[in-house]
Design a protein that fits this description.
Layout: E1 20-21, H1 24-33, E2 38-41, H2 45-50, E3 51-52, E4 57-58, H3 64-71, E5 79-83, H4 87-98, E6 104-109, E7 118-119
Parallel strand pairs: 1-6, 2-4, 2-5, 5-6
Antiparallel strand pairs: 3-7
Length: 120
């Protein structure tokens, strides 16, 4: 058998891009010490108006597919996603990865945020 035209194919393990969970403590530290972090609230406008974490950007779950790329143009910026209890933040974290964002962190719910919040 002549192997002069044989092609060697090697495969390297590829790390899938996925979101990571982040604790309120780590999120607060990074928000205070890093430039450009996006704190993303994915609840409804009504929920946001009642209470939200300071300096958060509101893009509701039902708008994320059409608004994310217009409002968060840098796909490599860290994004901390939160909702009320953590279910919607997971859904949006997955959607953001699918849209090509590379640093997505699930913060979970505002119910677990022990720090300052803005209220009506």
């Amino acid at each position: 058998m002549d192997d002069t035209n044989a092609e060697v194919v090697t495969t390297a393990p590829v790390k899938a891009i996925t979101y990571e969970d982040i604790s309120p403590e780590e999120a607060k530290y990074r928000l205070e010490n890093e430039e450009g972090v996006v704190l993303l609230d994915v609840r409804t406008p009504e929920e946001y108006s009642v209470a939200h974490i300071p300096n958060s950007l509101l893009i509701p779950l039902d708008s994320i597919e059409r608004e994310a790329e217009m409002r968060i143009t840098d796909k490599d910026v860290p994004i901390f996603v939160y909702c009320r209890s953590g279910r919607r933040s997971i859904e949006v974290s997955v959607a953001l990865i699918r849209l090509g964002y590379t640093q997505v962190y699930n913060l979970g719910g505002i119910n677990d945020w022990p720090y300052e919040i803005v209220t009506k």
